[in-house]
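User: Last request for today: this protein with zinc ion, please.
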Amino acid sequence: MCLQDDCIFCKILEKKIPSTPVYEDNLVYAFNDINPKAAIHVLIIPKKHIQNVTELSHNDPQTLLHIIDVAQQIADKEFHGSYRLIFNTGKEVGQSVFHVHAHVLTGEYLSE
Ligand code: AMP
Ligand code: ZN
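Assistant: Here's the final one, the structure of the complex with zinc ion:
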């Protein structure tokens, strides 16, 4: 793992901050969002500290593709395979944690 001291999601990976696990493998960790915006709201993060999805796509595209597969697996289990995937990128659009994370929203019908 490549971790950063002042990053809340790195602390979650190190188990210094508790989280509710949903999925884990050697590349990613998925856990419940503390402030859910849907019946199921899971965050999927790479085990490497990378700032945002653009950096991830350039530096580690395989992990980005893997995140999409994990999101699909969660949705297959929870809601007929349907899910919404969000990567906030930049503080102006609401990114508050600068360790890339996919928001997976599922588990209920969502408006457009
Ligand atoms: P973003 O605004 O896209 O950077 O998303 C950050 C997300 O992290 C928000 O949806 C928060 O609710 C979530 N979050 C922050 N701290 C925690 C935590 N300790 N455990 C789980 N989710 C968290
Ligand atoms: Zn981090």
